[in-house]
Specification:
Oligomer: heterodimer
Number of domains of chain A: 3
CATH architecture of the largest domain in chain A: 3-Layer(aba) Sandwich
CATH superfamily of the largest domain in chain A: P-loop containing nucleotide triphosphate hydrolases
Number of helices of chain B: 11
Largest sheet of chain B: none
Shape of chain A: globular
Number of domains of chain B: 2
CATH class of the largest domain in chain B: Mainly Alpha
Low-confidence stretches of chain B: none
Helix content of chain B: over 70%
CATH topology of the largest domain in chain B: MetI-like fold
Number of helices of chain A: 10
CATH class of the largest domain in chain A: Alpha Beta
Number of strands of chain B: 0
Structural class of chain A: alpha/beta
Low-confidence stretches of chain A: 257-263
Order of helices and strands of chain B: HHHHHHHHHHH
Largest interface: A-B, 10 and 11 residues
Structural class of chain B: mainly alpha
Shape of chain B: extended
Mean pLDDT of chain A: 90
Mean pLDDT of chain B: 89
Strand content of chain A: 15-25%
Order of helices and strands of chain A: EEEHEEHEHHHHEHEHEEHH
Chain lengths: 263, 274
Amino acid sequence: MQDATLSLRGLTRRFGETLAVDDVSLEVPAGQMLGIIGRSGAGKSTLLRMVNRLLEPSAGTIRFGGTDVTALRGRALRDWRASCAMVFQQFNLIPRLDVLTNVLVGRLNRRGTLSSLLGLFSEEERAEALAILERFDLLETALMRAGQASGGQQQRVAICRALMQRPRLVLADEPIASLDPRNAQVVMDALRRINREDGLTVLCNLHHLDTARAYCDRIVAMREGRFVFDGPPAALTPERVREVYGVSEEEFHAAPQGSLAVA
Amino acid sequence: MSADVAAWKARVPRAFGPTPRGRALRWLGAAAFLAWLGALLWWFDASPWRLWNGLDKLGVIVRQMVPPSPGEHWDAILQGLAESVAMAFLGSTLAVLIAFPLGFLGANNVVVNALAHFSIRRVFDLGRGMDQLVWALAFVRAVGLGPLAGVLAIAAAEVAVLAKLFAEAIENADARQTEAVRAVGGRRILAIRFGLLPQVFPVMLAQYLYQIESNTRSASILGVVGAGGIGLQIAERIRVRYWDEVAFIILLILATVAVIDTLSAWVRRRLIGG
């Protein structure tokens, strides 16, 4: 298997005057589950969205194995997006389509445009989607409209859609921020499962430190667009949190006014 | 893989397409629809032969339209056009003012009583049943020839249309926003003012602006029955087959509509943004 290290070099993104991500470098070896923590506005979302090129970097490069991701255009760019699946905070399912079709959407990049426009998914694809749904206990929802599933189910459907892409890595942008604690756990378990069982690299934005500590192999902490910590969960002690953020862990979690805006 | 597919097909057959019965019904439905289309075409004798002949004559007219020419009555054309624009503006404004309260009355989340809602909606239907041209004929008899009849015809015909569109926009509004206003202890009328109106205002404004544009175009036909505007100029020239002048007037109307469209896009951006 070819080298599947994701490496970011001097990655920067400006929005007008503000530096959302400021000269960030990072190596993520294949199969790692990486938690990116930080408060709202720290640049976590911007970073993830640059990795699958939903946002263009202002400077710096993204490499995956031997490929320069920042240089991809057209077909190659769409292929890259298919191989780094995105899981969104608000799930981004198509509520009016059934769960099965939402999962099949994950395969669009690998199919002919015309047959996709007509909704002609093959029986093999349908069987594969059903098998993925069954793996995450969602089989009974397969024919239900996605909008009618619960929040936790919807996020797991989104993970199934991601798997249907047959990705090399998964980017999860605050995947549990819209869920209650119980569903949050189910969803995090699902992400760890695809990391362990399918060997997928997972980059996961989180803003609860305990979740990051419980689920990730490695944590990087962002503040004002820069990395202020990079290490194993055990190294992110309360003292270290105070050191890098200047506040205690409770204060870190206490959301400041207006922090609901997506970073 | 294929054994897998077969197993899944047995377990979740509906994931692989409709049941044979469902499929048969779909085909039947599609066939009935096509048969109905065919029957209607046959009824109106829409043979390719007739269409081809018509095309031929249409071609003659198009040739006579080139090059478009203003003819000798510039002033009459411009006056007619100005009249049409003014009629559309007045008529649409009048229609919006009347339709605004009616829209709320016709929305089932404002007037909750089912019978009341049903009756109000049927009144809207009645209003929509009468076309602008019929209204125009009626108003020409009532208030005499000229643009006033046209203004009233536009207003009367659009009130019911706008009321229905407004009512539907209100019904599709997000109930959570009104809920929030009720939850702070606001009266119902205030819940409508702060929870509902901000949601439907952009739709109403867009409709209003569209009506002005659309009625400028349809005002060109009202003149044919004597209700003022550019239509009279067009009708007169068609009667004597001055197709080049007709073409000129049509181009002028197009340009006018384009200008209105640009203006209304600007107003929309200023007032609702985006």
